[in-house]
Design brief:
The protein is mainly α and 210 residues long. 86% of the residues lie in helices and 0% in strands.
Length: 210
């Protein structure tokens, strides 16, 4: 496999999650309970658009990141099967996630247009196909990454301590989202990216030796 591709995979592994955490934390700054949604979009348009640019970049990097994890478990029978199952949603879901962010880019323009455009926004979320594809399917990607992470820990591609850290971070992300604690789940994504750095270094080292 070309060295450039392996380098891209290695860099994407921590980068995808670190950017996701940064983007989500930046997006959190647009929340203002004293303002209505559309007013917030107008007031915080720069932060909204900037955070979504970062999130769009993270969604693109999720694809090579998934390939990086999968390549680390090849050759281990059980883990390879689990990683193969997880790879499919982990690679497909980011494309729909990117579509979600593309839709979100339009929201400040809708807000500036005024009440006449509000039904367009409402219609996007009330259309079952759009809602399912761009706001439902992306969740399957994180399930795929969980399976990939379990496979990596199972085959011993990371140290036991590293595996425990990854497990704890995943727990923080899951509970943070389930309990609607964004200041737990979002920073946890940054920590997750950092926890993947040893695996990224190993992947880069292996590719250099081959």
């Amino acid at each position: 496999m070309p060295q450039l591709i392996k380098t891209l995979w290695a860099a994407s592994l921590p980068g995808a999650f670190i950017l996701a955490g940064i983007g989500m934390l930046w997006l959190y700054t647009t929340l203002d309970p004293e303002m209505q949604f559309y007013q917030r979009l107008i007031t915080h348009a720069d932060a909204w658009n900037g955070s979504h640019l970062v999130l769009l970049a993270s969604s693109i990097l999720l694809v090579p990141a998934a390939m990086a994890i999968w390549s680390s478990v090849r050759g281990a029978k059980g883990p390879e099967i689990l990683a193969g199952i997880g790879l499919l949603p982990a690679v497909i879901a980011p494309f729909f996630l990117a579509g979600q962010y593309a839709i979100d880019f339009v929201m400040p323009l809708v807000a500036k247009t005024g009440e006449a455009a509000y039904p367009v926004h409402t219609g996007l979320f009330e259309t079952p196909l759009i809602n399912t594809l761009f706001y439902g399917l992306p969740d399957l990607g994180f399930i795929g990454f969980m399976m990939l992470t379990i496979a990596v820990a199972w085959c011993g591609a990371v140290s036991r301590i590293n595996a425990i850290i990854l497990g704890l971070v995943w727990v923080a992300v899951i509970f943070g989202n389930a309990l609607e604690l964004p200041l737990l789940a979002r920073p946890a994504l940054i920590v997750m990216g950092m926890a993947y750095i040893p695996l990224a270094k190993k992947l880069l080292s292996d590719s250099t030796q081959n």
